[in-house]
Design brief:
It comes from Leptobacterium flavescens. The protein has an 8-stranded antiparallel beta barrel. The chain has a single domain, classed as Lipocalin, CATH 2.40.128. The protein has 125 residues and is mostly beta strands. A hairpin with a 2-residue loop joins strand 1 and strand 2.
């Protein structure tokens, strides 16, 4: 009985120490694709990012946003020429994990702790 309890504690300790790989520097700049569903339609967003700008192409429309890095794995994106009130709101993005060619992230309007969404962006180049 005692050995099974110790085994369970050891496994629990091992699992709790695991952290997803986050090599965020590899995804600071480059060209990426991100797909999401909006009103039942799948939309693919292709964007290029450097340290301070992000240029996105969505349905043949080009949007430019400023990028402000908070730390290696978190940044704020804000449209430079918003057309609506909702586009004026900045988006907080946090990279949760990375692979060789993609990253999983969490995003929400800055200050909105309840409506976080998740997605995966694939690095194209």
């Amino acid at each position: 009985m005692r050995s099974s309890v110790l085994s369970c504690l050891f496994i629990l300790l091992f699992i709790s120490c695991y952290q997803a790989e986050r090599n965020c520097d590899e995804f600071r700049t480059g060209t990426f694709e991100f797909s999401y569903t909006l009103d039942g339609k799948e939309i693919t967003n292709r964007f290029s990012r450097n340290d301070s700008l992000e240029i996105a192409k969505i349905n043949n429309t080009i949007d430019t946003s400023s990028v402000r890095w908070i730390n290696d794995c978190e940044f704020i994106v804000k449209k430079l020429n918003p057309k609506t009130i909702s586009e004026q709101k900045a988006i907080h993005i946090k990279i949760l994990s990375t692979t060789a060619d993609s990253y999983t992230f969490e995003y929400a309007v800055v200050g909105d702790l309840k409506n976080k969404q998740r997605g995966t962006a694939k690095k194209i180049n």
